[in-house]
Amino acid sequence: MANKRNLKKAVKAVCGNIAGECIIARNLIPGIDADKMNKTVIEIADLQYQTIANVSFSFDKGKKAFENAHDYKVARDKYFRKAYTKLTSDFNKGIENIVAQMNEALPAAQKEANVAAAK
């Protein structure tokens, strides 16, 4: 697992890069739906805000709730692993939705050109 600072930096970098791609596409691709791209940029900002707000979570039990320190450490590690997995899963789903919205905003000619270039 990453520490909070590095995790927040990574989220900001990913969201910033995707928002930059949206802005570049909006300005350079003729026939693109600019309103959809503007809404997508706003959703990227919302995803970034929500993800960073959810990065800080804490284990709700103390050492006294367990028989020994080992049981506490095992339970705490399991809790953080599960929380981190959920955070990354939710973030990845959000990114997938944003990429789908970006693709919807493209004109048909650009979609065909992208498919041809991928072959």
* Helical/strand content category: mainly alpha
* SSE run: HHHH
- Strand content bin: under 5%
Largest sheet: none
| Low-pLDDT runs | none
Give the N-to-C terminal Cα separation. Answer: 37 Å
- Average pLDDT confidence is 92
- Structural Rg: 20 Å
Query: How many separate domains?
Result: 1
Shape: elongated
Helix content: over 70%
Structure summary, number of beta strands: 0
Number of helices, where a helix is a run of at least 4 consecutive DSSP H or I residues: 4
Task: For the structure shown, list the relevant keywords.
single chain; mainly alpha; elongated
Question: How would you describe what is shown here?
Answer:
This protein has 119 residues and is mostly helical. The chain has one domain. It contains four helices and no strands. Helix 1 packs antiparallel against helix 2. It starts with a helix and ends with a helix. The mean pLDDT is 92.
Task: Characterize this entry briefly.
By secondary structure, the chain is mainly alpha-helical.
Walk me through the topology:
Layout: H1 4-28, H2 34-55, H3 69-105, H4 108-118
Helix pairs in contact: 1-2, 2-3
